[in-house]
Amino acid sequence: MTASRISLYFPVYLRHAVFFAAFAAAFALLYHSAIAHMVKDWSTPDGSHGPLILGVSLYLVWLKRHELRQIRPEPALLHGGLLLAAGCFMHFAGVISSTILVQMISMVPALLGAVLLFGGFSFFRILFLPVGYLVFLTGLVEQVLGGFAIYFQNFAAWFAALFFRLIGMPVFHDYTIIELPHITLEVVRACAGIGHLVALFALAVPLAHLAQKTWPRKIILVFSAFFIGLAANGFRIVLIGLYTRFFPGQGVHGPYESFQVAIIFLLGLLLLLVLSSLLDKKPGGNNPGKTGNDGHDNPGDPPADLNPSENRPARPRLYSSYVIGAIILAVTLGFVHFYTPKAVALQRPLDQFPKQIAGFVGKDIKSIHQQLRPFPADAELLRRYENNENHEAEVYIGYFRLQTRKRKVIDWRRDWMHAEATKVQVSSGDNEFVINHTRLKDKDAASDVYFWYLMNGRIVTNQYAGKLITFLSSFFTRSNNAAVIVVATTSTEKEILPLLSGLAESARNHLDPDVND
Questions:
Q1: What pLDDT was estimated at residue 96?
Q2: Can you give the pTM of this predicted structure?
Q3: Where are the alpha helices (DSSP H) in 97-148?
């Protein structure tokens, strides 16, 4: 490049580079908590595929490098600004509702909005897959599949039981329980292998994009990853059963813990590559994913007919996009740091909570099962209620004056309560309530558990509805105080129902400021 051309282009692109560096710094500042949480999750077994997904995303961008160099940036100020603003608003909603998942998910529309705002629709079409692919880093897919974990557990147990019967081994199968002559296995939620199912699904996307010739084959390969993962998990249970049969007393997960859920990913990846190879051998059209050099003789060189002056963006419109992007990020940063909820104290302390409810008499206790109280609240009530018929229940009420990401009513440490929860309807006078019912599976303290949340005087049982209410309350009233009520009992539902009804009404009257007034 001649000196005149350097002097012509270097200052312009230097200014662009400075802006993008500043934008990246502001973006990192805005999303530092979400990024830190995401990177920290990479050190866990379920999130260990994170660096691989990030690498695949960058590789997909690198494959499009020649195509990107040929198009001229034409900023879409309206559409890009709206999409970037929507992503930033999602982030703000995640912050004030203390939902890290929403914060991580919001990075994807925010990045796509930035691409559209600064590059236009041509850049957006090319980068949609690499940027959208980052959704696998956010935990959204794991959260969605988590709602079906019990079905994955049942399938793995059924698959393993079927295999044992085929090889002539006596087996008793009951949902997630497998009883063999030498051992009883239970496929618990942690053994559903959701993280590795997501990893397989995520790798199937670029594999299908690059290796398959037609859209039907791409779709087949991507969705087959899901079923391959399920079958691999079932086969893992088979290996555990066979290993414990022939090597008793050597542990459950095999030598060097090789039968942990990671084998789902390794075995599934092998089967996925075999299936991709079989599909690729079938006759089909040209594969756009294999063109390699985008039609150029030398993939390492830029196109010969590319004129830098034709690729130079329209400066006024591009500078306008810079201003819009800076304003959106600055406003979002301001709201995140200054528009914060305020603490709301109880009008009456919890030690004044009624001790006599529906024939049950309460007595304060000092502790309750750790899974029912995984961390302390701002104000707490621990009490055992008992009636004359020796029906009793332990009650925990935790009130939060101000919810934060580390201390909130709807927390991942209580996810087990929602995993297999059912609804129970209770009534008190003219009022009817719906609460959750689940089972605490502990060999030392197994019991039925009833629980619900109290937000703005409303009983809430769905965790996603609770998050939405928390956001709306934080946004419109700048308060997010709430309470969680948990009841553990060995009595039947019919025996404990009067106490549940009285508790629901008493908690609402005692904890809701509007009712107190």
A1: 92
A2: 0.80
A3: 100-105, 107-119, 121-132, 140-146
